[in-house]
Design brief:
Length: 193
């Protein structure tokens, strides 16, 4: 079974300009980090993580998701959601993750900001979400920083990032995001990367 990739917005539309500008911001941020840390495949690493932000929120740092009803039961997806959101920001983090980012974990200090509260108030930023992602990758080895940064292709880096960092629950998520990376690779190459 092949799962369709999400459609990209028209680049000349207002939504398209925001989408592709944010994609470039996310990619450039991860690529600069990978180069500064001398990862062997900075483009693959950057695309692998960029794909996660696209898949989870279309690069919206104020995205809300995984709505539940008053009894805590997960509600089906709707274009205009009802209920209470349980996932927040560009990477659709649950409260345990947003709390750890804010407060820290073990002897690792947190960043002091709350992605959930910021997203609920529509005040989260791409930069805060990226800083939170790096904090998680540096703090929790199980989120796969080493595995993602070692991958020689964007396809493989996106698969590792989906499985280890994003931990997406859909059965087709890993293969879908790997295919999404294949779509981004020539796009970024066309931009000179």
């Amino acid at each position: 079974m092949t799962v369709d990739l999400p459609a990209w917005p028209d680049p000349s539309s207002a939504d398209g300009k925001i989408f592709f500008d944010r994609a470039m911001t996310v990619f450039s941020w991860w690529r600069t980090l990978a180069q500064s840390r001398r990862y062997p495949h900075p483009n693959a690493f950057a695309i692998g993580l960029t794909v996660q932000a696209e898949a989870e929120s279309s690069f919206d740092p104020n995205a809300l998701g995984d709505y539940v009803d008053e009894a805590g039961r997960k509600l089906p997806w709707r274009p205009k959601p009802i209920g209470t959101p349980t996932s927040f920001g560009m990477h659709q983090r649950k409260r345990a993750r947003t709390d750890a980012i804010r407060d820290g974990f073990g002897d690792k200090h947190g960043l002091g900001f709350d992605i959930a509260a910021l997203a609920l108030a529509k005040q989260n930023t791409v930069d805060k979400d990226l800083a939170a992602s790096l904090w998680e990758l540096d703090t929790f080895p199980a989120y796969g920083l080493a595995a993602i940064s070692d991958q020689p292709t964007a396809h493989a880096a996106a698969a590792q990032a989906c499985a280890l960092f994003e931990r997406a629950g859909a059965t087709s998520a890993v293969s879908r995001r790997a295919r999404m990376a294949n779509r981004w690779t020539p796009w970024f190459a066309g931009k000179g990367f």
